[in-house]
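Input sequence (315 aa), recorded before submission:
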Amino acid sequence: MASPIGTRSIAKRVIATGAVVAASSLLLTACGSSKISGNTGAAPNASQSVNAEGADAALVALVPAALKTAGTVNIATDASYAPMEFKDASGSIVGMDVELGTAIMKKLGLKANFANANFDSILGGIAAKKYDLSLSSFTATQAREKAVDMVTYFNAGEAVAVLTGNPDNIDQKNLCGVKIAVQSGTTEADEIKNTINPACKKAGKAAATASEFTLQTDATSALVAKRDQAMMADSPVVDYAVKQSGGTLQKIGQDYNTAPYGIVLPKADGQLAQAVQGAIKDLIKDGTYGQILTKWGVSSGALTDSQVVVNGATS
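Predicted structure, token format:
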């Protein structure tokens, strides 16, 4: 995620779980599943009912012929980013993006097949036609929109987590000299390089050190194991990690740089983008969208409308 096009966010992206951390109440499994403090991968509000609406004929008509013939849409996602996308105890990919993506495809008369992929490989995979699209907590940036189009579906900010009690007295607004765990290719990784460290240099302070990991789960493990002093990730990911940590982690400061996530689509595939956008609008209108967000504990990021973003980001 080091390059702007690899950045995870219409400015970001980033939890789930990784290697077991000894002497910690935060249990992370190496397979990338989100088994934290006994969590089995169930949604935070698993009892929340979700509508079972069928296909929308008008939207089905917009689906490109090749996808209609295939009947299944291959959707890339980085399953290390709970509660958005991660693996449950059985190894199945679950999360808000997964449930929403499945509902979108149902509106289009299609079946969703989610494929796990490293975050910073996804855009290249779409360009190579390995995947049809991606739901993986991508925020839209101008650089990214040179390669893909996006349909907005959720708002997220960025956030910083530390060990409970903030033993190093870290200030979210002054991260100079701090060793920060971050997922590669994310907006947060770019922020350290392009915003935080230039400001530290200008102020005559030591640069922050970014410990970059392929999986967000490994970034979380590094903080829990005290190999790093802080972790930067998207706000829903940090909030979920804190809730599941059994008191090991806390968030400091406020969420910032809030911007929409976008479903990533091949460049200039306008017909598919319109179909996906229409499905999101349907799901918002019929209440399914709100039910899914409530189920996964991320209602604060709800949008009231969806936009097709083509060279429209401001960052």
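Checked by second reader. The chain has two domains: 4-157+258-305, 160-256.
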